[in-house]
Specification:
By secondary structure, this protein is α+β, with helices and mostly antiparallel strands. The chain has helices at about 1-10, 15-45, 50-80, 90-125, 180-185, 230-235; strands at about 80, 85, 135-140, 145-150, 155-160, 165-170, 170-175, 190-195, 200, 205-210, 215-220, 225. It has two domains: about 1-125, no CATH class; about 135-235, LytTr DNA-binding domain (OB fold (Dihydrolipoamide Acetyltransferase, E2P)), CATH 2.40.50.1020. Helix 1 crosses helix 2 (about 15-45) and helix 3 (about 50-80) crosses helix 4.
Length: about 240
């Protein structure tokens, strides 16, 4: 509605054309915004320098694809003629304004994803309640089978939405369980949620090194390197003598 009102007032369009203009501007933001959001969620666990490079690349892709789809939609809605559709690129000034709008939209999406990650990390970094025993053994579903898994064999757990990838000494398994549920079932003396996307077994950490910005890089005994958040680094450093 905001797009429709803006285009209607700025260009003096009637209601129908204003609504079509609003739809044309909204569709690229929704489609590509959802796409980059899923990628940004996974970037949070990476080192800062990789995040920055990836954000620059993602922003450029988001702006380019949004601009191209907008031109196509405007051509479909307003460029129909007897010989087909006419797709016209924007003028230089209009392209500059559209690019600024797309960069701002991407920045807002990335910022909201990061803020949500920080809030979830603070809310879910909780210890196991006193009246609830930590799991020592659980079962995971592989196909139609339920296979036992000793909790002490866990090395790390990587979560995204409702799924978690469990890394053990014998391999990796994908399970339908949130990281928050795992955190409440594990022994807090052994397992630390070092990031909104990661839980690590401290008994499987071979060394830790600073990663800048208050973060740490945890080297696991499998050779895997996991980047912590600032809050996760604080929880890990609480174990330092």
């Amino acid at each position: 509605m905001a797009y429709s009102a803006t285009t209607g007032v700025a260009l003096g369009l009637d209601l129908t054309r204003s609504l079509l203009g609003g739809v044309a501007n909204t569709i690229p933001v929704v489609i590509f915004g959802m796409g980059v959001r899923g990628i940004v969620v996974r970037l949070i666990a990476m080192p800062l320098r990789i995040q920055l490079a990836a954000h620059l690349l993602l922003c450029a892709v988001f702006c380019t694809l949004s601009y191209c789809l907008l031109i196509v939609l405007l051509g479909l809605f307003f460029g129909a003629g007897p010989n087909g559709f006419v797709f016209r690129p924007f003028s230089v000034s209009a392209t500059a304004w559209q690019s600024l709008q797309n960069v701002t939209t991407y920045a807002l999406i990335a910022a909201l994803v990061h803020l949500r990650a920080v809030n979830e990390s603070r809310e879910e970094a909780v210890a196991v309640p006193d009246n609830r025993a930590a799991l020592s053994r659980c079962f995971i579903r592989i196909g139609e089978e339920l296979l036992p898994l000793d909790i002490d064999r866990l090395i790390s757990i990587n979560g995204a939405d409702d799924y978690a990838e469990v890394s053990t000494t014998t391999g990796k398994h994908l399970v339908r369980m949130t990281l928050a549920s795992f955190a409440k079932s594990l022994d807090p003396s052994k397992y630390v949620r070092v990031h909104r996307s990661w839980i690590v077994n401290t008994y499987r950490v071979t060394r830790a090194e600073p990663a800048g910005g208050g973060r740490l890089l945890l080297h696991m005994e499998t050779g895997q390197i996991i980047s912590t958040s600032r809050d996760g680094a604080k929880l890990f450093r609480n174990r330092v003598l």
